[in-house]
Amino acid sequence: MQAENLTHVVPPSSRSTKYIALRYSDFPSEISALGVHGNVSHCRYMVVFHYGSAVLFNIEDHEVENYLHIIRRHASGMLPEMRKDDYAIKEKPLLAEDMQGGPDYIVLKNLDTDSVRVIGSVLGQSMALDYFVSQVDCLVEEFAGINRAMEKTGTFTMDRTKLIQLVGKANSNLADVILKVGLFERSEIAWRDAKYAQIYEYLREEYEVAQRFGNLDFKLKFVEHNIHFLQEVIQNRRSDLLEWCIIFLLTIENVISVYEIVRDSTGVSLDLACRLGNF
């Protein structure tokens, strides 16, 4: 994607490889190539993250599909339902502070490309977190259904393969949140400049990123507890089956032993009777 949109790629200001930022303006391409893009607030931006989120700035609703089409051409897979959210960014050069927050919006004294990156990183993480929460909610509901069935019947019919698949799904969701989304990796831009750190921390608090991950972690612990319980039940089933197999084999062995003893005793008795008859 970056190779096909080189003229629109914003040069990175950090070592992060989790995203690319694209800038679109109404200036001719030959002027844009010289680095003249005009005011940031008058340009369109698209920040695309490798874990599947895309954050669009200054793009009208009727233009969104055109920009998303650029991403879809390079996507490895599409979700059945696209999740989206809106957040307003206002620019006031005469603002006394660097930023000021409000309900569903943030006011910046100066909107620059690093601000776009920082804001995009938090919004992208928030949308990705929504997706993973929905995935874990499906797991929780599935185990809730299993528990309700066990409450009625006293047993469950899930096989070991299905349980292993659920274990893999739960673990992969947690790993993706931590590794791919980088939920606990602080933005390098925010590390370097307190102005961006303030924006970063404000937005994470506004979107309750830490609290939502805490809820996600709690649900995953519920899933983990259920998995351990069901694994023990399946293991006990296998142990019971092995015990019955051993009992069955011992029974067969005893039957064979008794049969051989009876056969040998009968053979001796017949031989003795024949000898007596001959005598």
What is the topology?
Elements: E1 19-24, H1 29-32, E2 44-49, E3 54-57, H2 64-72, E4 88-91, E5 99-102, E6 105-108, H3 113-153, H4 160-180, H5 188-192, H6 194-206, H7 209-278
Parallel strand pairs: 4-6
Antiparallel strand pairs: 1-2, 2-3, 5-6
Description:
The structure is a single chain. The strands form two sheets. A three-stranded antiparallel β-sheet has the order 1-2-3, sandwiched between helices. It contains seven helices and six strands; from the N terminus they run βαββαβββααααα. Helix content is 58%, strand content 10%. It has one domain. The termini are far apart. The chain is elongated, with a radius of gyration of 34 Å. The model is unreliable at 27-37 (pLDDT under 50). α3 runs parallel beside α7 and α4 (160-180) runs antiparallel to α7. The protein is mainly alpha-helical and 279 residues long.
Summary of the model, kept short:
The protein is mainly α.
Q: From the helix content, strand content and strand pairing, which structural class follows? A: mainly alpha
Number of strands: 6
Strand content: 5-15%
- The H-and-E topology, N to C, reads as EHEEHEEEHHHHH
The biggest sheet, with number of strands, parallel, antiparallel or mixed sense and barrel status, is: 3 strands, antiparallel
Show unreliable segments. 27-37
* Total individual domains: 1
Radius of gyration: 34 Å
Helix content: 55-70%
Count up the helices.
7
Which strand order spans the largest sheet, edge to edge or round the barrel? 1-2-3
Question: Separation of termini?
Answer: 107 Å
**What's the rounded overall pLDDT mean?**
81
Taken from the alpha-carbon principal axes, the silhouette is elongated
